[in-house]
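Input:
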Amino acid sequence: MKHPLRWVALAVGAVVAIFAVILAVNVGTDPRADLNTSRLLGKSAPDFSLARFDGTKVRLADLAGKTVIVNFWNSWCRPCREELPVLQQWYREHRTDDSVVMLGIPRDDSSRAIRDAARADQMEWAVANDQGAKSATLAYATRGQPESFVISPRGRIVGSVLGPLTPGTMDQMVQAGQQNA
Amino acid sequence: MTTSARRLAWLGLGIIVIGIVVGIAWPSAAESRSEHVRRLALEFRCVDCEGLSVAESATASAAEQRRDIGIRLDRGESDEQIRAAYVESFGENVLLRPASNGIGLLVWALPIAVVLLGGVGVFVALRRWSRQPRLVATDADDALVAELRTPVDDD
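Output:
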């Protein structure tokens, strides 16, 4: 070998170039892209059993055959307050529809703050707050609040939105749930 | 230093380095359950925080995750199974340290490969320089130096 140093430099350059190409191809354009999409989409919805403030229990398995909207929220969360009118409007329009159920699950809040907020903001849908709620936030791999999931009547997660819901996304998610009935 | 003394010194240094590496890499056999939970929790990113691990975060979701890790350990799940379950739910991003397989392997392998190849380069360069013959002044060089040192006569 006439110029060993040149060969070593070439080898280092080649290794760096190959790794750079592989990394660029695999990582894609947004390394945090998988933060914005739930990995549970299309999978069976984890079961949960939650206590409502009136003492009654809500169990997901008991809601089989219905489209279930699960909204993870906190009373102190500003984006949750922003989406509240959308949830209230949607609930008013569908409160008599037996095929759809809406559940509010707090992620990180005190029982008292949740109860006060639910009362003050006239959240008439089922709002739960107990140890089961904490388990559900992990079981649904929630990444923040608000985060909403739609569960089809067959018990599959067919939609998820991280961030405030809009009337459009709300309808789209519920339609996706009903199409998977 | 004699050759045998030098060899002994190198052997001693090797034993010390191996001891340090094994001490760092080998988990303590007497690890308690809470230490085990904390060790695993240190590997996971707190989803509600910026750059904090589940072990360090005070959020409710991190507390729930620590509790869940404990439950999984009690069920007999291995560290690898717990890691896989969290990656399955949250994605690779939940790991604070890149995985040591697939694409994550590149993150570990690239610096090592570059350092190894760089080391080979330095070794080859040093060997080449040490083999180059030292320059020795010839009679002609001495004569030239003597000539230059001769005072110049201004007249």
